[in-house]
Design a protein that fits this description.
The chain is an alpha+beta fold and 631 residues long. It folds into four domains: 2-206, Immunoglobulin-like (Sandwich); 214-310, Neutral Protease, domain 2, CATH 1.10.390; 322-485 and 615-631, Neutral Protease, domain 2, CATH 1.10.390; 505-603, Pdz3 Domain, CATH 2.30.42. Helices cover 27% and strands 26% of the residues. The chain has 16 helices and 30 strands. The strands form seven sheets. Strands 6-5-9-3-2-13-16-15 form an eight-stranded mixed β-sheet. A six-stranded mixed β-sheet has the order 1-21-22-20-19-18. It has a four-stranded antiparallel β-sheet with strand order 7-8-4-12, with no helix packed on it. Strand 28 and strand 29 form a beta hairpin. Helix 7 (369-383) packs across helix 9 (410-429) and helix 11 packs antiparallel against helix 12 (468-479). The protein starts with a strand and ends with a helix. The chain binds zinc ion (ZN).
Length: 631
Amino acid sequence: MKKLSSKFALCIAATFLISGCAALKNTTPARPDYIQASVDLVAMNDDRVQVQITPPKINAEEITFYIPQIVPGTYEYSNFGRFVENVKAYDSNDNELSIEALDQNSWKISNAKKLDRITYWTSDTFDGPEGSEIYPMGGTNYKEGETFLLNLHSMIGYFEGMKEASYRLRVRSPKNLEAFTSLPALSKSDTLDIFSAKRYFHIIDNPILYSEPNTVRFDLDDIKVGMAIYSPTGVHKATDYEAAIKEMMVAQKKFLGKANNTPSYDILLYLMGMDELQYFGGMMGALEHHTSTTAVFVEQMQPQELTQSLVDVVSHEFFHTLTPLNIHSEEIHNFEYNTPLMSKHLWMYEGTTEYFANLFQINQGLIDEQNFYNRILEKLNYSQRYDDTMSFTEMSAGIVDEPYQTNYANVYQKGALINMCLDILIREQSGGDNGILWVMQNLAQRYGTEKPFQDDALIDEIVAMTYPEVGEFFKTHVEGNTPIDYMDYFSKVGLTMGETEVPLPSILFKDNQSPFFAPQPNASGVVQYVVTDLNTTIEAMGVQVGDLFLGLDGKMLPEIKQENAEGINAVFTPSFMWDDQKEFSITVQRGEEQLTLRGVTGTPSAKANGVVEDPTATELAVALRQAWLKK
Ligand SMILES: [Zn+2]
């Protein structure tokens, strides 16, 4: 997974509304040996979709039906059962069987030998109970007649002891909408699609996007690539992004070499509106699957901005086909959706993945050296927001609970930096020949989708195929709690800290972390935003230190106080979507005068202390840097 902000709490709300709607009638006469799941996207009721599940004949007196508490790739409790209500069980004569909710995510059915089917209504996570806590890329959205984003883990469950049974999924859909998914289809028509899934995991590993057709498909040698976009106003066309996705995936395949064996890859890109972005607290990102990814961004992003976000985020997801999808522990292989055991190796599942998503871009020439160093610096800065003395393996094993959960986002920051250090160490020891990619290629050959490693043995295995120094690093900085002195690793490859021009995330910033303004109370105690620093863009527009910042691009800021956070964000957020051509204005007060200053975004930058090449580096260090970045 890759996300751009985080705030999560466990949800304990569950409501069971009474609904008088009739169950879907199952007309199959004989009992098949697969589980049949039916979803009706046409006959909706109050923004809810009805689901019916028909299991094979059950030979136990009672059986439990589960909706997942947690799903792979998310590392937090989601309790998807709270989006399910009015669960009913029937025998083949349409008599109701007794059913009891055991907790938010499980239901016990008595007299199970007589069970013919269960039915329930599902709410979408985009506006369902406490739905904002679910990552949008792992969520569902029902927009009647217009689009359906189906992450099936919030809609379809499994029976106790039957996770390995195969599924047939029947989806009745509006005529104008077309399904896009990597789930194999047995048949497709305007109004009814039938899919098959080998086991429960397969059904939730293949999300489905129903929308009006907006897709592109192409072959990259032996890999079939597809992308579908749901764009509410239709401004973003899949064909506009084909070239960028092609370039990115060609580069990734070259980078991975023999470690890539993915036969097909589908990108489901769901673009939400600003209101939805606000609902999710600014959260965007993507979730990995074996042969697809669901990415959620905001439609207001300019094409250039969206393209770079797609490259950064979708490349991360595609690298997940290496780990955890092809290299994972037993805990992940036999994933328990309702009593999870977590693996210790988030430094690899997310850290290596995120590191590669940056390294391949410099390795394959998509970005230049300074851009790569700036990305490293950004990770270094952001990692300081989290507990730098927390053992990474301990955090990973306990990630669903505190104090680990609030440090989760550090897997994208320090997790990537751990891999950078390992990479430099292994390059140094091997005279530049091998790095962390070589380790991953070897692990991919040894393991694979069907062969998990033992969680406790992985680090020893890596040390055995590399060097004792690597073992020391793991013991001290990954298992242990000693912070990494990154300067040690920078100096090995001839880098140092020094003044550099750093590009900014938006025109609102003075460096890559802080805005160019600060809240300060005036003489009468009213808090105002005072301009404290400048960046190249706003300086060129004529903004001056000491100005009061009143508004952006015609939208005036409300009074600066906590209760107005949403209104303040609404003024600021659009600036993150602007490309470098956007004309905009800033309204300031200077003395008695109110000024509206106009300009173009350009590429705002500021002088800052950053990672730079050391002109006094030894030849050996420069050669190691070349091997690290370009080999
Ligand atoms: Zn990820």
